[in-house]
Amino acid sequence: MAIQYWRRRDRYYRLVGSRCKDCGDEFFPPVYKCKGCGSEHVADKEMPRTGRIVTYTQLHEPLPGFEAQAPLYLAVVKLDNGARVLTQIVDSPDDSVRTGAKVEATVRRMRVDGESGQIIYGYKFVVRS
Amino acid sequence: MHLMQSKNRAAILGYGAYVPYYRLPTTEIARVWKGGGSGPNVEKAVAAADEDTVTMAIEAARQAMKMAGTESVGAVFVGTESKPYAVKPTSTIVAQALGQHHTLAADLEFACKAGTEAMQVITGLVGSGMIEAGIAIGMDTAQGRPGDDLEYTAASGGAAYVIGRKDRSAVALIDCSTSYVSDTGDFWRRAHERYPRHLSRFTGEPAYFHHIESSVKTLFEETGHKPSDFKYAVFHQPNPRFPVEVATRLGFTMEQIKTGLLNPMIGNTYAGSSPIGLAAVLDEARPGDKILMASFGSGAGSDAFCIEVLEGITRTRGVNPTVKSMLERSTKIDYSTYSKFRDKLQK
Question: How far apart are CA A9 and CA B277, in angstroms?
Fold first, then answer.
């Protein structure tokens, strides 16, 4: 199993990021040190599961393991707390995938890990009109 | 007495359903395998290439916990016959995604009635006082062998229920239930086999009808209830015909079953079938309404429930997407896309 994936599973399943205890800034992915005030007093924080598309593209030649999902949308999503996430957009009509569209997080299969066959799950987003 | 009733009253505190976005018209299956025509249902719900029982269970469970307003549960039970792993629980992945660690977690298996079995077990755990609340999920990505009759109906979807002690915010009281089982070989899948097999003429009379009629009649005999006491009835839905037929035999009307009858639109979601029918009913039910739900699982058995809707149902409106909205938010796919999504192509 990908050890890195196992260690990060709360990030992938629940969008667990960081919140600075001193200035209140929130970050995703998690940080050890606040990027705003430099404080090391940061704690785990579940991010909001909704946001808006900032920018997007459509891939017709995706990475190995994603062939069955081609063509697929990749987008930068700004969560409701301002944190940004690079993510796949799924289950959404082509004309709904646009800058500014409201999206909501979902958990999906990302890929199957090599010969071990372990399934890697993670977050993707769906357009919510 | 065969009636199961918890001493501490247990109730549904929240529920959530999940129906995938994609629909395969059965005319597509008939076109490929028969040269035309259609199946008994209009369409079936198809999980996307990146969906499985784990991902769908997480979505339904999240909704159920949101509606219940609970942050911790003492049990996460997933009833399914389409576990992504033969060995490795579906339920621990779901529990991790829900942020639950101090909890029982198990996958229950009983073909199409594993979801209602999870509801009964959690009702018992809550009723005994062992746990405050638990989540029961019935979810499947059912598979039919290409070209087999089952392929028309084998579909994806299901529902989750947070069951806890009855309080003023509770959605519906799980008043009592009965179960009836026997060794009946109507449908099975041996280890390492990809698709289930069925004995066509055994699936009806000695399996579906005998077991559902037995569980429901026992419930009637031991509670004194009769069909007219119920505003709604939900029966397991392997196809559009069987639930209508069993309802008629037991004395229910079309008016009582139409709200929860989803097979024509989404097919048979196996362990999710009766739980998602119940969710569709709860979306429309009012306080005081009584609901009869009877599942059926091959192999074989049936659980029959008497459920009474409580005042708390009024606070649930708008909290989660309704089953009806999930049926509407969909897009049609052809047989080729379905084959790609459900991994039916050899590369």
Answer: 33
Residue linked to tokens 């159920």 = B64
Q: Once rounded to an integer, what is the mean pLDDT over residues B218-242?
A: 97
What gap in Å lies between CA B305 and CA B219, rounded to an integer?
8
H or E element, residue B241 = helix B241-250
Superfamily (CATH) of domain B10-171+319-341: Thiolase/Chalcone synthase (3.40.47.10)
Which domain does A9 fall in, by range? 3-127
pLDDT in tens, B310-326: 999 999 999 999 999 99
Q: How many CB pairs under 8 A join A and B?
A: 50
Predicted confidence at residue A115, as pLDDT, reads 81
The ipTM is 0.95
Tell the burial category of B136 from Cβ atoms under 10 Å away from its Cβ (0-12, 13-18, 19+): buried
Find how far residue B70's CA is from the centre of its chain: 22
Phi, psi dihedrals of residue B220, rounded to the nearest 5°: -65, -45
Active-site positions of B? Answer: 81, 112, 236
Q: Is A70 on the interface with B (CB under 8 A)?
A: no
